[in-house]
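Exercise: predict the fold of this chain.
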Amino acid sequence: MYVQTKCYTFGTVMEKCDSVYCGCLHFSAGALSRVMTKMADEEFAVTGLSSSYAFLLMTVNSRPGITPTELSEQMLLTPSTITRLIEKMEAKKLLERKTVGRTTEVYPTEKSKALDVDIKKAWRRLFDRYAKIIGEEESKRLTSEIYEAVKKLDA
């Protein structure tokens, strides 16, 4: 295994780096995303849902009648991705869409509402799992900083 002791990123030296790309935000963010998605999917597996579907159901369960546009904004996903997720959950009888005038609203089914407690428990287990590894305060700080960076980069 190749071990890099220093990583250079546009003039900045990072010590104790084990990848030549550790100084690249794109690389590090992608690696974090893969690790977190795997961890989240493991925790949400008890619900029979991937993390994306679980977060969709939590959102709709907490806001019955939410529009796909609002879901897109809340979940930071494109409208086409939201539509695809909703369609999959409709096929599983977990969500239903209703047209009200020109607006589409998304509602949870009883089956979705029944899953809500287990989904929220899985979400809590996910937090506890990574907080145990990197620390609770560090987890909160890192989450806040990453979200602020997303907002700035997406502006």
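Check your answer against the key: Helices lie at 25-44, 51-62, 68-75, 79-91, 110-134, 136-154.
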